[in-house]
Amino acid sequence: MISTFEGKTWKFGDNIDTDVIIPGRYLRTFNMDDLAAHVMEGVSSDFANKVQKGDIIVADWNFGCGSSREQAPVALKHAGVSAIIAKSFARIFYRNAINIGLPVIVADIQAQEGDQIQIDLENGVIKNLTTDKTFKIEPFKKFMLEILQDGGLVDHYLKEQSASGE
């Protein structure tokens, strides 16, 4: 089971809302590449061009606030973000992220933009490999790890249904 992630950090502050994550003018498309090309445009004009597969967002309070648009976590995941760590999340964003298989971790860690971070969800450990600091988090429950491993809630449900023969 994949429960460990490692990547370069991108730092963001408080109240990063879904309009900043994916501006409303781009919501007319269902093309994931188009959404990913504009992700975080409202707060970092070069994010979409520089983010790499496996990168990790580290933010402050209330990440994902605003509307309930599912495109926000979808665009982040499609752009290559492997996980988001924040001091707190808007509940609907948190739920939407888990539903699509994007790990979101409530934690207050010390990291600068560009630091290398390693996250172990099963054992509840985040390591800043750049500064050699370790942070304890609540380990993810087995069922949450299974949802993330399966790529999100719908895929997890379909897998469970297939396994039970229904």
Strand content of the residues, in percent?
15-25%
Largest sheet: 7 strands, mixed
Q: What is the CATH fold-level name?
A: Aconitase, domain 4
What is the overall number of helices?
7
CATH H-level superfamily title: Aconitase, domain 4
| Number of distinct beta strands | 7
Mean pLDDT: 92
Strand order of the largest sheet: 4-3-2-1-5-6-7
CATH class: Alpha Beta
Which stretches of 5+ consecutive residues score pLDDT under 50?
none
Euclidean distance between termini CA atoms: 24 Å
* Succession of helices and strands: EHHHEHEHEEEEHH
Assign the CATH architecture: Alpha-Beta Barrel
Description:
- The chain is α/β, with parallel strands linked by helices and 166 residues long.
- It has a single domain, classed as Aconitase, domain 4 (Alpha-Beta Barrel).
- 31% of the residues lie in helices and 19% in strands.
- It has helices at residues 18-21, 32-36, 47-50, 71-79, 91-99, 142-149, 153-164; strands at residues 4-11, 56-59, 83-86, 104-106, 116-120, 125-128, 133-136.
- A seven-stranded mixed β-sheet has the order 4-3-2-1-5-6-7.
- A hairpin with a 4-residue loop joins strand 6 and strand 7 (133-136).
- The radius of gyration is 15 Å and the shape is globular.
- The protein starts with a strand and ends with a helix.
